[in-house]
What does this fold into?
Amino acid sequence: MDEVFDVETLRRAARVAGFAWTDAELQPLRRAVEASLRLLATLDALPLDAIEPTTQYRIL
Amino acid sequence: MSAELPFASVTELARMIARKEVSPLEVVRAYLERIAARDATLRAYITVCEDSALAGAREAESALVAGRAPGALHGVPIALKDLYDTAGVATTGGSKILADRVPDADATVVRRLREAGAIVLGKLHMVEFAYGPEGLNAHHGAPRNPWDAATERMPGGSSSGSGVAVAAGLAPAALGSDTGGSIRIPASLCGITGLKPTYGRVSRAGVLPLAWSMDHVGPMTRTVGDAALLLRVMAGYDPADASTSVLPVPDYLAALTGDVKGLRVGLLRAFFLESATPDVRAAVERAAAALQSAGAIVDEVALPAVAHVAAGAYAVVASEALAYHTAWLTSRPGDYDPEVRTRLQLGAFVTGAHYVKGQQVRALVRRDVDAALARRDVLLAPATPLTAPRLDERQTTLGDGASDVRSALIRLTRPFNFSGHPACAVPCGFSADGLPIGMQLVGRPFDEATVLRAADAYQRLTDWHTRRPVLA
It folds into this structure.
């Protein structure tokens, strides 16, 4: 994982999201980003194709 | 009299004031004196509105003398988490970024409470921008859990000051907000009652957001009766909040019959009780037995999709929170608490596809909870799987293994933010080391009346909610 999510990779991803964060700001994020992406990857493994996402919050 | 006033319930205070057994000025002064004596240590308040509270009390007294009909909360002081807009009073969200922000108008629920006669005592500490369940705040320091201020334990968050103020007698009631459990977690850790209503039951207009689709606002009180009283005033359609329901607001107090005969209670064991520490698990099982002894029908039920709530809710909250904070993360990143800034920045690495998958999981979770409640009136679970951790504690051991404290605190509350169902946390015991234990009762959408009836009946059977912390 370290090879994938080095600071340069995070900088590029952050730029795509619209943020020009410095290396000093990104360095402390590395482990947290890796943990976050591991958690999000569990969503990819779920059989969700037939499930319509919640888009309406007014229940009644 | 005044020594007992800070621990009188809202219901008792309103009754005593209406009968002129005590004056609003006496009540407000009793709280202001206690805040002055205790809050330097407990740190519940960011702003104490002493002058306006005293002025409000004098007005309330004049109205009574003039014979004007009192509102349901006439002369009763309340305190607000510092993310509710208050006209002319700073509303900071516990942040440095909004330290000088003074709104022109009250949040809808604040206006409704004032119209019912409530007097705002002040604004309460919170986790910066409500993004964290421990109750920590790098700018202001953490409020101290009054049950063990010597050890310095977490009050729970993000409505940390609300939990501490109500538990320590610095306010008879407070408002909190709950995106992943931020009303019910401090209620559980501080030994008070906390109600997260159904999504859409109470207006969020004028309340700083964390994640719009998961934010709920509600009361934090010492008794379920008080929560019912406050909800009756706060709830209802608001044109300023498009998510609010047009359903009429019932008389929640009338629902508090004390009767649970035939009430169908689903005890959530898998994921919920199984993750609790032994003290918490035993207390909630005793609560289920108490309800059963009073005539409730208790069985066990599971919510299979809750295993995916952590990932799904993370995708939703991280994305929505980032959207709200984008401009400040660019212009003022150094003004955030570093831990909160990190949580916000992580939202930049969540894709749109993951956000939608989170919403798909949300549909599954809602379906699970609805199915469990199709044959039951309420669900019962611990509110938190553990009692208040130390302020410096980062790792803990739950009933099903090791966990970081942050994940542990939100684990059992967040599913019902995701699903939108109403949930009420009430005290249900104490651990071997004297810390409060909280359970939660969850109901069908917009059926707060049944949730409150069950919780109130439990409080009539037990005295956990009457215990007070001994302050040094």
User: Anything to note?
Assistant: Chain B touches chain A at residues 198-200, 213, 242-245, 247, 308, 310-312, 314-315, 318, 326, 329-330, 333, 338, 342, 345-346, 348-351, 354, 356-364, 366, 420, 445-446 (CB under 8 Å). The mean pLDDT of chain B is 96.
